[in-house]
Design goal:
Number of domains of chain A: 2
EC number (chains A, B): 1.1.1.85
Order of helices and strands of chain A: EHEHHEHHEHEEEHEHEHEHEEHHH
Subunit structure (chains A, B): Homodimer.
Largest sheet of chain A: 10 strands, mixed
Pathway (chains A, B): Amino-acid biosynthesis; L-leucine biosynthesis; L-leucine from 3-methyl-2-oxobutanoate: step 3/4
Structural class of chain A: alpha/beta
Organism (chains A, B): Paenibacillus yanchengensis
CATH topology of the largest domain in chain A: Isopropylmalate Dehydrogenase
Distance between the termini of chain A: 20 Å
Bound molecules: 3-isopropylmalic acid
Oligomer: homodimer
Main location (chains A, B): cytoplasm
Chain lengths: 356, 356
Amino acid sequence: SEVKKIAVLGGDGIGPEVVGEALKVLQKTEELFGYKFETEHGLFGGIAIDEKGTPLPQETLDLCKSADAVLLGAVGGPKWDNNSKELRPETGLLGIRKELGLFSNIRPANVFDCLKEASTLKPEVLEGTDLIVVRELTGGIYFGEKFRREGANGEEAVDTCAYSVQEIERIARQAFDIAMTRGKKLASVDKANVLETSRLWREVVIRVAEEYPEVELEHILVDNCAMQLLRRPSSFDVIVTENMFGDILSDEAAMLTGSIGMLSSASLGEGSFGLYEPVHGSAPDIAGQEISNPIATILSVALMFRLTFGYHDAAKSIEDAVEEVLNAGNRTTDIAVDKSKALSTSQMGDLIIAAM
Amino acid sequence: SEVKKIAVLGGDGIGPEVVGEALKVLQKTEELFGYKFETEHGLFGGIAIDEKGTPLPQETLDLCKSADAVLLGAVGGPKWDNNSKELRPETGLLGIRKELGLFSNIRPANVFDCLKEASTLKPEVLEGTDLIVVRELTGGIYFGEKFRREGANGEEAVDTCAYSVQEIERIARQAFDIAMTRGKKLASVDKANVLETSRLWREVVIRVAEEYPEVELEHILVDNCAMQLLRRPSSFDVIVTENMFGDILSDEAAMLTGSIGMLSSASLGEGSFGLYEPVHGSAPDIAGQEISNPIATILSVALMFRLTFGYHDAAKSIEDAVEEVLNAGNRTTDIAVDKSKALSTSQMGDLIIAAM
Ligand SMILES: CC(C)[C@H](C(=O)O)[C@@H](O)C(=O)O
Ligand SMILES: CC(C)[C@H](C(=O)O)[C@@H](O)C(=O)O
């Protein structure tokens, strides 16, 4: 079959380690299923700042644009935290989203049965939780005008949050499309009792909903959603929301599953191109110790297979392998009850590959 | 002693019921401690829209301004949800905050030992949770310019988020002051890796921190805070944040305690004046059935005694009475395990008064 080109951005902290295991999974997929991948590494984040003086070098951007998909580890660390804005890893992250037109961030938050105990929520509350947060990723207060000014009472800072009908329409459509493939329930989160952007958001979502008569639509205020995620997580199917609210709620949702080391994410634009990364961060405190959990990154590869390449057979093989390995009691430190029995990053990767 | 004037705004839904029980507590306090209160009722919220055509009539505002403190039930309900902005209860709420200069919202989120089971979090995680969220209440995206415009891609909506040094300073000082009376730990929540207002927020908080060398200050990004509240709630003491983040995080914090029917709040300005209200809303679905839980409103009176009047003896008597009544197994429906044994609103109120 056709060769698929994957841009590989290891990034910082544990990023390169976990991506290393995901690359082994790609290779195993070639052997097992006959798919062909071409991978090319690029510098991104803190390491790119160190080596190229910018978190998102032009050659990395060109590499991503020439690829069919991007696999990202994680970026950031204390080393760059006090840099000026242009020299911070997260600026690269915002840049790559904007430059590649990745307007939609998709984060499944599901509970791994064997890990239910890792959550701080009661198991009976979590039971059956399997939701997806669809977050708008290139608009809102993240990308609006930002400045300082002299106000009536001295210095002020300003951020602007703007949303166009078009931006809301395309993310709403994507959320409805995803809901159609699942439980056909969509919760649209806004703050329409206060924000003008939220009022437009709600208007547009209601209009788009007419195209999806089978989907049950609920509007929920962001503060209430933060509560309901705790009270009735399993009642949610797909949640769609704007950039800033999505940042907060998707992290809350991820944490409540207790499976944060296991969660993958996709950032999508028009067409099938996508950027895939684990939800967890760069964890600089444990980098280089070979104890990080590679499962979220491996599952990000499965998500890439499903959403960008349509390789559902290979995706299923990965997902089943992960479940089998976990069910057999294998754990990395982050999810181990008995830490002394924890596997290393590559031991976990090898077991998953063997189970594929 | 001096007569204290309290403006009483019952509002909508269960508001008037729960406020009714709080008024009994005021009366009992007069008998027991010799303090004198003068109460005057005002129309506010949906009921004011119905009777006066505006959620915050001028006479209600004048009443509040002439009072030493305001006791509020709750506002809102489906009846007014589709009204235009000026005719919605929440517009009254935003208006009263701005007009009375209530720049600080204080929400204790503590766990009642006898109610730990009501939380969806594991009891061992909740153990010892006792935090306060200090939310900036009259700035940020809530009060910035809002409009629609024709953009490059058609209609857009815009919200503006602005913060001045002065606004950040006064809320930071208040949070530090509160931290000094408690565990001397302050978590300042922002999104300084993305927002200009957050960068200014962090700068100012760091500057104000110099005045409070004894307080241990932590800066935490809002998405991370949404996670850490779930992971280690008991590690927080005081959390300070801007208006929108505070709306979300204070509701998350309230819900995780499992005690949302029990939580009180204060909105304060310069000086001792304050508005006190339960954290729970107007619950229109159960209004008029006399089954609502009056404890949050009764504890809001205790908070008023502490923060506005300095009546610590009476506050303690109320707080102890609530604990005693709960420890004896008395419950309203919302917190009852066996709903058939639940008390009515006024039965609960009477028991608390008797225990004072
Ligand atoms: C690092 C930061 C800019 C980023 C965001 O806020 O989008 C991160 O929190 C995320 O969710 O991917
Ligand atoms: C009703 C609404 C405007 C209000 C807010 O967002 O401030 C409420 O959620 C609150 O927290 O008091």
